């Protein structure tokens, strides 16, 4: 894709985000648009940066690490990690990420903990499906995991993250997520982030309080290869 096309897709998506925010009576300025760059080369991240993008997300540890290391000159670029984190890779993810959206078990909290380090922003990932093989904690377990994170000084709980199930109306799924987010705020009052909404459902996510959108293909175009 040419960089003019990239620029116009980005502007189009940002326009739709602003429209959805206004329809929901929200200030578009309180919403962070994260561009998901998985499967795309580091060069695309560099182009996005030149267009003003400062928040990008990756979901595979090795790919994330490689791109991160190639782009350390992009000083204020913030990397969000949104994929499953293996405990043995947790420290490496922690070193490169500005935020980890996919904390879903006590063991990972322990693996991410680096005593005396500056706090890392993390989110509890919620599994909104009935499939236990999906990433994320079950809804009812979120407050307890939030408590574990709250007791870990090297982690700062910012909120919750989820992907809408394929077989449920995203608006209903995000409404449930808003309820879970409120329960998590009962544990950590300033955990105000709701990371929800992708290319196909970000308007519904905005209507239900999403503060961080994770948008890939609507901005980048199709991913080159998903193997
Ligand atoms: C790939 C991915 C996205 C972006 O999906 P698109 O449909 O391309 O916008 C968002 N969140 C997570 C966790 C992802 O893995």
Give a verbal description of the structure.
The chain is an alpha/beta fold and 227 residues long. The chain is 40% helix and 19% strand. It has nine helices and nine strands. Strands 1, 2, 3, 4, 5, 6, 7, 8 and 9 form a nine-stranded parallel β-sheet that branches. Helix 6 crosses helix 7. It is globular and about 45 Å long. The two termini are 20 Å apart. The model has no long low-confidence stretch (mean pLDDT 97). Bound molecules: pyridoxal-5'-phosphate (PLP). Pyridoxal-5'-phosphate (PLP) binds next to strand 9 and helix 9. GO terms for molecular function: pyridoxal phosphate binding. This is Pyridoxal phosphate homeostasis protein. Its cofactor is pyridoxal 5'-phosphate.
Oligomerization state of this entry? single chain
How would you sum up the major sheet?
A: 9 strands, parallel
Q: Radius of gyration in whole Å, from Cα?
A: 17 Å
SSE order: HEHEHEHEHEEHEHEHEH
What structural category do the secondary elements indicate? alpha/beta
Task: Report the span from N to C terminus.
Answer: 20 Å
**Strand element count:** 9
State the shape.
globular
Portion in strands: 15-25%
The ligands bound in this entry are:
pyridoxal-5'-phosphate
Tell me the helix content: 40-55%
Unreliable spans: none
Number of helices: 9
Mean of the pLDDT scores?
97
Pfam families: Ala_racemase_N
Cofactor: pyridoxal 5'-phosphate
GO molecular function, one term: pyridoxal phosphate binding
Keywords: Pyridoxal phosphate
């Amino acid at each position: 894709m040419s960089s003019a096309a990239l620029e116009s897709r980005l502007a189009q998506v940002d326009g739709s985000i602003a429209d959805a925010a206004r329809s929901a009576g929200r200030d578009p300025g309180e919403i962070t648009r994260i561009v998901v760059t998985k499967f795309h080369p580091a060069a695309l991240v560099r182009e996005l940066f030149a267009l003003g993008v400062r928040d990008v997300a990756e979901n595979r540890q090795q790919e994330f690490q490689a791109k991160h290391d190639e782009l350390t000159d992009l000083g204020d670029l913030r990397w969000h990690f949104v994929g499953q984190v293996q405990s043995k890779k947790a420290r490496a993810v922690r070193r490169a990420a500005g935020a980890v959206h996919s904390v879903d078990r006590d063991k990972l909290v322990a693996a991410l903990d680096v005593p005396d380090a500056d706090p890392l922003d993390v989110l509890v990932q919620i599994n909104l499906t009935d499939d236990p093989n999906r990433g994320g904690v079950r809804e009812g377990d979120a407050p307890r995991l939030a408590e574990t994170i709250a007791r870990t000084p090297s982690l700062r709980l910012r909120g919750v993250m989820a992907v809408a199930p394929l077989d449920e109306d995203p608006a209903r799924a995000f409404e449930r997520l808003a309820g879970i987010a409120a329960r998590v705020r009962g544990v950590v009052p300033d955990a105000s982030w709701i990371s929800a909404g992708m290319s196909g459902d970000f308007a519904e996510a905005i209507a239900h309080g999403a503060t961080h959108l994770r948008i890939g293909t609507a901005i980048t175009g199709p991913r080159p290869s998903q193997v």
